[in-house]
């Protein structure tokens, strides 16, 4: 299968590198990472040990492939979609966190857009080298739920490359449940500067549970069956399983980088307003992160 991975940063380089063991992969990223891959190939280390030589480019225009995998940060999705729209693909797949990415992609690209949630951990440690910080699982399916042969074919392609993959018919529920987890963990760990596990038995536990419950209420108003207790159970399960992880939002704050707050807490607040649900906890967390970003000139 010909695959373009658009956004060859941490996650895109890990997934693209693993896919390159089995498929013809083109990574779209930025220099010096792209230059090093073109010169010396891509190394994956940490919990995996892989060396591959995928094609890499900084120019994502006019590309043609069976599948476009999108792995840019949520705030770059619109620009990425506009670039991908100059090319031709049988399907696109978002591996991103946050909500709204698939709709943004579908508004620009005229091929089916699949949704994905992935629990691998990746960190770009040097040009040409990405560390796998955790081996996880990929779930892929039609973004509105149901079945689609494209999802089956995509899942088989990832499985063939050694990426354990489940093809699901309930992606809307999975995306909302992942959003509840991110809305609960990411902003609190970023503001408190703590690992994921620290919020379980801390004064922030109630705040995290409240953010998760608010997200579940918005999901139900959006027509997705996600009970409050399911969202809280998912939060507790992930925070426990990734207790020693520094969330992506904490890493962004520590790196003085823009966060994905608009696609996480901000999305909950904005969607809640459309369906007349109150989300004081998510509103407060979104405001605090945005205040930090503004103070750093990041928005
Ligand atoms: N890093 C991880 O372990 C995981 C990340 N995710 C999600 O995956 C997404 C990506 O996250 P990361 O890989 O950590 O971010 P990242 O910032 O390391 O990678 C994104 C890359 O896309 C590149 N990019 C953006 N626009 C581009 C363009 N127009 N042309 C070429 N390159 C472009 C950026 O330069 C950057 O290198 C986020 O939504 C994140 O929440 C999800 C699970 C795990
Ligand atoms: C699930 C969690 C919180 C794991 O760290 C994550 O997806 C992130 O850090 O963005």
From TrEMBL:
The keyword Oxidoreductase applies. Its EC number is 1.1.1.169. It catalyses: (R)-pantoate + NADP(+) = 2-dehydropantoate + NADPH + H(+); (R)-pantoate + NAD(+) = 2-dehydropantoate + NADH + H(+). GO terms for molecular function: 2-dehydropantoate 2-reductase activity. Keywords: Coenzyme A biosynthesis, NADP, Oxidoreductase. GO terms for biological process: coenzyme A biosynthetic process. Residues 3-144 form the Ketopantoate reductase N-terminal domain. The keyword Transmembrane does not apply. Signal peptide: none annotated. Pathway: Cofactor biosynthesis; coenzyme A biosynthesis. Residues 173-291 form the Ketopantoate reductase C-terminal domain. Gene3D superfamilies: N-(1-d-carboxylethyl)-l-norvaline Dehydrogenase, domain 2, NAD(P)-binding Rossmann-like Domain. Catalyzes the NADPH-dependent reduction of ketopantoate into pantoic acid. Belongs to the ketopantoate reductase family. This is 2-dehydropantoate 2-reductase.
């Amino acid at each position: 299968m010909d695959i373009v991975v658009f956004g060859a940063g941490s996650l895109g380089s890990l997934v693209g590198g693993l896919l390159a063991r089995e498929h013809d992969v083109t990574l779209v990223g930025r220099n010096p990472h792209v230059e090093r891959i073109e010169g010396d190939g891509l190394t994956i280390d940490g919990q995996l040990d892989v060396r591959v030589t995928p094609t890499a480019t900084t120019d994502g225009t006019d590309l043609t492939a069976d599948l476009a995998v999108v792995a840019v940060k949520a705030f770059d999705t619109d620009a990425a979609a506009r670039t991908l729209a100059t090319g031709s693909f049988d399907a696109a797949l978002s591996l991103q966190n946050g909500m709204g990415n698939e709709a943004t992609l579908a508004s620009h690209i005229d091929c089916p857009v699949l949704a994905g949630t992935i629990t691998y951990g990746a960190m770009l440690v040097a040009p040409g080298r990405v560390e796998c910080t955790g081996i996880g699982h990929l779930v892929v399916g039609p973004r509105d739920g149901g079945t689609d042969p494209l999802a089956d074919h995509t899942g088989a392609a990832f499985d063939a490359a050694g990426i354990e993959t489940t093809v699901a018919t309930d992606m809307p529920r999975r995306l909302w449940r992942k959003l509840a987890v991110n809305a609960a963990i990411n902003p609190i760990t970023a503001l408190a500067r703590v690992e994921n596990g620290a919020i379980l038995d801390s004064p922030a536990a109630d705040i995290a549970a409240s953010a998760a419950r608010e997200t579940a209420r918005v999901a139900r108003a959006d027509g997705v069956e996600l009970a409050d207790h399911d969202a809280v159970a998912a939060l507790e399960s992930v925070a426990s399983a990734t207790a020693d992880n520094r969330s992506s939002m904490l890493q962004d704050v520590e790196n003085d980088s823009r966060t994905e707050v608009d696609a996480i807490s901000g999305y909950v607040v904005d969607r809640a307003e459309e369906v007349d649900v109150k989300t004081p906890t998510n509103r407060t967390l979104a405001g605090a992160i945005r205040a930090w970003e503004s103070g750093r000139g990041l928005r």
